[in-house]
Prior knowledge:
Layout: H1 2-19, E1 27-46, E2 50-63, E3 74-84, E4 87-97, E5 103-111, E6 115-123, E7 131-142, E8 149-162
Amino acid sequence: MSYRRKWITMFIVILGFVMFIPVAQAERQYVEFILCGASTWNVVESSLELGIGSYDAKCIIQSTHESGLFDNWTVHLIGVEKWMGIDGTWNTLSKRTAPDGDFIIWESYGDSEHGSTFKPIYGTGKWKGVKGELKIKQLRTGKPNIRFTDQFCEEHIGWIELPE
């Protein structure tokens, strides 16, 4: 009987310690910013029935959230698009660089029905292991002043999570 009591007591003590060990949890942060930039297009085919091409964009971010997260980050984005009439699909990869030099690589996919969704696939420095998702809303586009260029501003809203 005494042997059993010792095991029960030891189990209760260990359980008590385990209950008070702090568990590191990633903190999800709300993200909201405006991204403006200019892109250059490489057109493969351009007709009313079919449009195929790639683009290379350079952008800057202005945070619209009180946290200021991503403010003054720069962006280099490359992508491909395919349009069949008014229905389009696209895929992009972008490198978003912080003022301190750390960066996040984002991958996106989208179509003309659902818009774009960005997800991080790689990060450096404090952004290593980052998770998140951004949805895009086109705010404005300018009339191109040079053929096969585009100027634009987008609103990005979503969340980001850093591992502890």
